[in-house]
């Protein structure tokens, strides 16, 4: 944080949502001397923040919608192991979001998006570390790098613009080919012949425990936790009086909306119709795997990440457009297991059910791959912090620092203009 609070400027702040973003934000606000109440309707860190791939990657500045993405969609959709699926019944509801997604994928726009994401992701480690260190669990974060692997030079060349964006944003990487790649990461199949290694990246060995550990420290330090579902805001004369919840009014002078994919109705209540939808993702986790990489590996062709977790080997990924209500399609998770065995031939061809767990979660996704961080239109006491899509774990703590700046009335060290709720 840039400077301490002015005397007398501490407030009662309600942070709605106990995922990575909400818990990190609540922790930074508490450290500044505010009276902070975390409002969570379920379990802490059990939303999208539970089952993600755990990657903390400054290299993730490449947006999801890129020039040429649309051309690849039909191929993705017909491949049963492909990275994308759409429940056709959901298409009419999704259409406006998809139109914006396509529109945001021009060369000029992706350059601007990558530039905006860079400072949010660059500080993944320096922002998370004080929180985990204070919580006494620095070992939850490792910095062993992040490796993207390809089956052919043609696949690698297909991602050329992504690497151009990284170079333009000073994100270093090394290219490893053939024996050099296999020596560096012996667990992977020899069918993968080329890799890009991002040494400055890392991962957490348990995203859910990361969130819970930081939340425990928050409560030990005097932060309050209320289990309730936020329904709206009590605003009088433009100033916030409190949060309306299913457990009654929680008095607060400032609030943060950090409800991930569920943030849209709360923002709408404050006059901001944000195009937030969800890219549902899945994981499978093999406990006691026969093969384990030393660091997260992105299969860049199949678009999933395999991460060595403290609980086993997690394969996470896929994008499924089906909204917040449809039940999971566990075939998507089964496909990840098939793809994982293809990437790591040392894995057994079958695993007993008891050793494999499956999960589905809701990425909070904006069509331009940028989160919403900034003040609400109808009430400047409410700050948004949601919509982090594929990079919410990596950018959660840095987001929390920016929100603390806004609540304190300091100019944020980060340029928040690209993240405004009103940008569409
Ligand atoms: C398969 C997969 C892999 C991923 N891999 C990575 C990765 O490697 N690295 C990375 O950085 N990101 C990754 N992500 C993205 C990342 O998980 C999300 O961006 C991030 O977890 C979002 O955090 P959040 O706190 O905004 O949301 P969430 O973790 O979903 O938390 C929101 C919380 O708000 C609560 N809530 C909702 N509505 C209300 C309400 N009305 N009142 C009270 N509480 C409410 C929910 O119960 C929930 O606990 C991945 C996602 C998926 C699905």
From TrEMBL:
Q: Which InterPro entries match?
A: FAD-dep_OxRdtase, FAD/NAD-bd_sf
Q: Which UniProt keywords apply?
A: Oxidoreductase
Looking up Gene3D superfamilies in the UniProt record yields: D-Amino Acid Oxidase, subunit A, domain 2, FAD/NAD(P)-binding domain
Q: Could you tell me one molecular function GO term of this UniProt entry? A: oxidoreductase activity
Matching entries from SUPFAM superfamilies are given as: FAD-linked reductases, C-terminal domain, FAD/NAD(P)-binding domain
Top-level taxon in the UniProt lineage: Bacteria
The keyword Manganese is assigned to this record:
no
This protein's name: D-amino-acid dehydrogenase
Provenance organism: Ancylobacter vacuolatus
């Amino acid at each position: 944080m840039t400077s301490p609070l002015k005397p007398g400027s501490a407030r009662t702040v309600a942070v709605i949502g106990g995922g990575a973003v909400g818990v990190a934000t609540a922790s930074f606000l508490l450290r500044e001397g505010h009276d902070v109440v975390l409002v969570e309707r379920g379990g802490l860190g059990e939303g999208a923040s539970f089952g993600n791939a755990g990657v903390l990657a400054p290299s993730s500045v490449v947006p999801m919608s890129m020039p040429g993405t649309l051309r690849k969609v039909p191929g993705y959709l017909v491949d049963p192991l492909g990275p994308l699926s759409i429940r056709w019944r959901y298409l009419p509801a999704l259409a406006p979001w998809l139109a914006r997604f396509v529109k945001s994928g021009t060369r000029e726009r992706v350059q601007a998006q990558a530039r905006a994401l860079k400072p949010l992701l660059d500080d993944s480690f320096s922002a998370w570390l004080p929180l985990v260190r204070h919580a006494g669990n620095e070992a939850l974060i490792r910095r062993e790098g992040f490796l993207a692997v390809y089956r052919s030079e043609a696949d690698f060349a297909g991602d050329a613009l992504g690497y151009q964006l990284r170079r333009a944003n000073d994100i270093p990487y090394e290219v490893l080919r053939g024996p050099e790649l296999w020596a560096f990461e012996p667990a992977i199949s020899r069918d993968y012949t080329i890799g890009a290694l991002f040494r400055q990246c890392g991962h957490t060995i348990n995203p859910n425990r990361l969130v819970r550990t930081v939340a425990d420290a928050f409560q030990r330090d005097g932060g309050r936790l209320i289990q309730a579902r936020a329904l709206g805001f009590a605003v009088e004369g433009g100033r916030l009086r409190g949060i309306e919840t299913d457990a009654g009014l929680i008095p607060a002078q400032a609030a943060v909306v950090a409800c991930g994919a569920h943030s849209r109705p709360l923002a709408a209540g404050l006059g901001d119709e944000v195009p937030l939808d969800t890219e549902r993702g899945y994981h499978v986790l093999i406990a006691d795997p026969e093969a384990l990489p030393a660091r997260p590996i992105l299969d860049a062709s199949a678009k999933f990440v395999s991460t060595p977790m403290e609980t086993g080997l997690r394969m996470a990924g896929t994008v499924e457009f089906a909204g917040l209500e449809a039940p999971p399609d566990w075939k998507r998770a089964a496909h990840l297991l098939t793809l994982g065995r293809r990437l790591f031939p040392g894995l057994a061809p079958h695993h007993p059910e008891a050793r494999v767990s499956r999960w589905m979660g809701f990425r909070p996704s904006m069509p331009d791959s940028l989160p919403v961080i900034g003040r609400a239109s109808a009430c400047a006491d409410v700050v948004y912090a949601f919509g982090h899509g594929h990079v919410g774990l990596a950018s959660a703590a840095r987001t929390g620092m920016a929100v603390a700046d806004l609540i304190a009335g300091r100019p944020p060290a980060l340029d928040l203009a690209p993240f405004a709720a009103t940008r569409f």
